[in-house]
Every structure is written in structure tokens, then in C-alpha cells.
Amino acid sequence: MLEEGVEPDLVTYNTLIFGLSKLGRVKEARKFLNVMAEMGHFPDAITYTSLMNGMCREGNALGALALLGEMEAKGCSPNSCTYNTLLQGLCKLKLFERGIELYGVMKAGGMQLDSGSYATFVRALCRDGRIAEAYEVFDYAVESKSLKDFAAYAILESTLTSLKKAKEKGRTI
């Protein structure tokens, strides 16, 4: 591109960072984050979220959380997709305390998870034996009308009911 006299724009950088992150080439993607800033392009929520997603896929959810701090320090506001990505990454690594903290930040900021992220978070909490916290998250999802479809509601309700019964009977979750 540069050889042809065409300067990459934000969309070009976002596409590169997304693709590299998806391929597991997070270090290269991170370099493009720095290059784009040097070229006068400011990363947006899509840029950061793409990189965070790649980091979470590599098992580096804590690094992705640090990137969230960097993102906010540079004046870029995270969106619900950013939070969904981080929360799913934290749950995958069983970093529930961090997930609960992040969920609290989201709630305080008026952000909502999507149905899939609620399901992931509730299941992860249940599997860790945190039934009360899972119900709290589920209740908030229902009250805030975040569960847009009946299927998501039914899956979450079924998961919670089954796991609660198993725990009451003394079975391991």
C-alpha cells in the first residue's frame, strides 16, 4: 500500500489487527497498534477489542485487562463488545473475582452483556459453586431486559435450576 502511495486508514489498521489477532499473531497485532499511533491514527474500541480478543484466546485475559486500562487512559471508551470479550476471557480462565469486578464496573456504567455472555458468566459461576452470585447476575439480566430471546432465558433458567438441585443433593458441580 505504502509503495503505491496509499496511506492506511483506521479501517485498514483495524482489519489488520483483527486478522492477526484471530490468527494468534497477537504480538504482531500489538505492533500495529503502535504503528498506527505513530502514523497519526487513533485506535478505537474496535481496535482494542480485536486485540483483547486475541489476547484472551491465548489465555492472556489479565493482559487484556491491562490493555483495557491503557485504552481508557488514552481516552477511548470501551463498549459492550469490549466488556463481553473480557468477561468471557476471564471466565474461560476461571478468574471469577476479576470477572465479578468487571461485571460491577459494567453495571455501574450502564453497560449490558449480550445473551451469550450472560449465559457464559452464569454457567461459569454455577460451575464454580457460586449459585447465589449466578442468580444475582441472572436476576439483573431479567430485570434489565437484557435477555432478548426466550431461548436464552430458558437456557439460563434451566442451568441454574439443575445446578442448584445438584448442589442441594450434595453432588459436585
TrEMBL record:
PROSITE patterns: PPR (PS51375). InterPro entries: PPR_rpt, TPR-like_helical_dom_sf. This is Pentatricopeptide repeat-containing protein. The keyword Lipid metabolism does not apply. PPR repeats lie at residues 9-43, 44-78, 79-113, 114-148. It comes from the Eukaryota. Keywords: Repeat. The keyword Repeat applies.
